[in-house]
Amino acid sequence: MVIVRVLERKLARDLWRMKWQVLAIALLMACGVSVAVMANSAHKALINAQMQFYSDTRFADVFVQAKRVPRSRVFALGQIDGVAMVDARLQEIGLLHLPGQIRPATARLISLPETPERYLNGIDLVQGRMAQAGPTNEVVALKTFLDAAGLRLGDRLSATLGGRVISLVIVGAALSPEFVYVPSPDSFLPDDAHQGVFWAARSTVERAAGSSGIVNLFAFRVVPGARVESLLSAIDGQLVGYGALPAYERKDQASHAFLQAELKELSTSALILPPIFLIVAMTLVHLMVTRLIEVEREQIGLLKAFGYSDRAAGWNYLRLAAAIGLVGVVLGGLLGCWLGAAIVGLYRDYFRFPQLSVQFDWTSFVVTAGFSLAAAVTGSLVAVSKAVRLSPAVAMQMPRPATYRAGLFDRLLPVAFVDQSTRMILRSLERFPGRATTALLGLSASLALLVGVQFLFDSLERVVDTTFYQTQRWSDAARFAEPRAPGAVVTLRRMPGVMSAEALRIASARFWSAGHQETVRIVGLEPGAKLHRPLDAKGRPMAVAGRGLVLSQALAQRLDVRPGDLIWTEILEGRGTKVALPVVGLATDYSGLSAYMARRNLNRLMGEGDVASGAELLIATDAKPAFYQAIAQIPQIIGASSRDDTVMLWRNIMERSFKTSIGFYLAFAGAIAFGVTYNLGRISLSERGRDLATLRVLGFSQSECAYILMGEMAVLCLAAVPLGLLSGYGLAQGLAAAYSRDEVRLPAVIGLPSYGWAVLLYGLAVLIAAVPVAVRLWKLDLVTVLKTRE
Amino acid sequence: MVAPVSRSFHVSRRGSLPVPNFRLEPEAAFTVRGLSKVYRTGAGEVHALRDVNLDIVAGEMLILLGPSGSGKSTLLNLLGGLDSASSGSACFRDFELVGASAAALTRFRRQSVGFVFQFYNLVPSLTARENVALITEISDRPMTPEEALDRVGLADRMDHFPSQLSGGQQQRVAVARAIAKRPQLLFCDEPTGSLDSESGILVLQAIAEVAKEVGATTMIVSHNVGIGAMGDRIVRFRDGRVVDVAVNPRKASAREMGW
Hints:
The structure holds two protein chains of two kinds. By secondary structure, chain A is α+β, with helices and mostly antiparallel strands. Chain A has 22 helices and 20 strands. In chain A, the strands form three sheets. Chain A has a six-stranded mixed β-barrel with strand order 3-4-9-6-8-7. In chain A, strands 13-14-18-15-17-16 form a six-stranded mixed beta barrel. The longest helix of chain A has 55 residues, at 643-697. Chain B has a six-stranded mixed sheet with strand order 6-7-8-3-9-10. In chain B, strands 2-1-4-5 form a four-stranded antiparallel sheet. The radius of gyration of chain B is 18 Å and the shape is globular. Chain B has helices at residues 4-14, 72-79, 102-112, 128-136, 145-151, 167-179, 197-214, and strands spanning 28-41, 44-57, 61-65, 87-92, 95-96, 113-116, 185-189, 217-222, 233-238, 241-247. Chain A binds chain B through residues 398, 400-406, 419-421, 423-424, 427-428, 431, 690-691, 694-702, 704, 782-783, 785-790, and chain B through 73, 77, 80, 82-83, 102-103, 106-107, 109-111, 113, 115, 117-119, 121-127, 130-131, 133-135, 137-138, 159, 161-163, 170, 177-178, 189, 194.
């Protein structure tokens, strides 16, 4: 027992002596563990909150929106094979005038279910009380909207609904599974302050809509195992003639789809990043233990000479490696717990669930902890097994000088060009190719991470620029309740401050091609439109004229069509025209799936006259308040968007969500650069310490010695730069693919400043790591070197 | 106690014995006065060197003998500018080592001192020639590495790496490295401590010959009393003090020495 205690004491002292190296490696492992724990914990918290919320509020499986459906049709919809329950509501959309806001918000007034036990898409009342029927038009507002717009219970709002201005009184605030995330109609971003969602008694909504006995919003619960495809067709079939858009599944519901994409991003982070940290940490453990064993070769021989078994001698070092892993795992668990809570805190502002509580994902912790410990032990296994194979006599002998030979560098570089110090650096690199490669890969990984994660900023900037400044060049847009003659656009054009106005016709359509099917909105543009121009791959505006369709590249890819191909098109509004249209061009855009055609041609296909569903406008900034005040009086306008608001919103979201997570990753990447450089420096100093002290004795200055020691690190750090930048670009492409979704496809673009920042941060991390090594070099003991063998 | 230095000069001046390497008015390479070194450890103070006085004459070969811990290596370290004294004075020509800055000591070692270590301390990644070139590259008027290696009898081993050389050969490379800069001072700390007798003799022979050729004042620290025979004077240490400085009446060559 005494034997074990002595070895344990040695282990503890070794760990303490190498504490900074141990910490540097453990921190890398901690990064790996914490990213996994953070991402999985946040994932788990979101999934649990989502599932609980969906179940409590009976979130529907299938949705459909129509114009006017008599309530009597609801029974028939409930009879469709596979439908377990149908919930029908009335929804009226209009404009909402908010005190203190220039731009009116969209008001979406939805009727509350009348039978408490038979409903879908319930709401969770979090404040106040339910709205009662009555002349005061009581409503329950979406909590997200209430908070963002700075409203309170009891506030009275004025809305233009069904062509009339009515007043609404907020009596309660609620959360809804349909609106966990509320995208604005003109971008995929949540615009909470301008998306007013209200629930009121059916009579109140009917009064606002000016009709009774009508419903237009349907939700379905599907019998488990039912064939959803045929069920969707059956629903569509039942609603033909009622102005219905195609029925869609939960996976296509905006709020749910956005949530799922967010969850996928979290899983991606949990999968891509931890292995990078663990692999780097594993190789560092290998290098450190290999060096430790070289230094302690004699001690191993001594232990064996005294009768310790190979296993006991080796076990000591394996435990050392495992101890490093353990420190990393504990730190990683704590860090992951903290980061997980921080991320969930962020999500709380972003996704409104009644119960989004912090969770600790034990499974991911146990799995990554296992991997970390295995990585640490595996990293040291080779060195340990080599050491215990030495016979005690050999181990205790004075080691022969390390074997070197003239190599590639000697052949490439003539004698006259290279001084001996440089020669030492080059030969060391050549003699330990494994170590050099490991360091190079570790450093490149760090730089790649620094470059790769920054791509999100550049990529999103490109998306903003292309979408809101190159393709859509309007400053504001107005949507009409019903298609209107171009005269309405001319009226808008004449309003104060409006410099330009272009009519727009938007209609939902379904495309078929080669077995693929997509439902998208066709945007009908004026010929020669200046405010909305699809761009080709080279960024040049494309003409939208004639019968043909211009499709976004993403849509063309999904449908597997090229310019010149014919594509089956069913216009889902109007008379439901089915026609084959030629694809005349592909547009490069980054958000949504778009199809463009000439407005008048779209009008013709739909069998309607010369009409527009809205207008895109260019308005002088100082004239906007007057303009919005004026359109607030026009009941036919039910929505207004502002590019500046959207872009500002975008930047706020970036600020809030991406910067934090990218901040984590940048810190982690810095940790890799620091960990690799520091450990490499310490190992190098341990190997070279005696040589360098000898050179100091022989008259070399500290800076000349620093050149030899740091030269090798510098070569590797510099060599890692091009490799890191390239891999960073590769990583950005991978992340772009992983993070892209239907709403936004991220281009893998990285701007020069991002490369610059990455290299700067990398250089800083490397320099910080070099400082403690340099301090040790400065304090080299010159006397000892005279008397000690290595 | 009478200062050992005066006693030694007394001996030499009085001498009926021949003093072959001494000029009549010897030029002092080093003047050491009251030199002491105290290490402070957790257990208290350790007096490694106590009040040493010594005049070292340019070009002479001094053999420092004494048991372990007697202070001989400490003196070598202080005179070599590797360590700083606690008190006293050590003057090399006009340069006072005690209290000199680290940079000044580095310059002193670089320009004036050649070192030979017990464990050779060659850079394993450089060949014999390159190990010597390492020093000639930073020296003012060095001999070529080839010349230095030739002088220690290793002309045919110049492109060998240390791992391809025997211990004795490695130590001779170290000697070549030390003298290649034509140092005024050559300090050897147990240069044969890790060698067999045959290799040791070759190394000592090399040291003696090249030191004489470059005119270096040489100090050799050793446990081996027999080595004393090759010095001009023998300085004996005990408990951090110089207890005796004796002139060697008949300087023997390395070959003649008893091992």
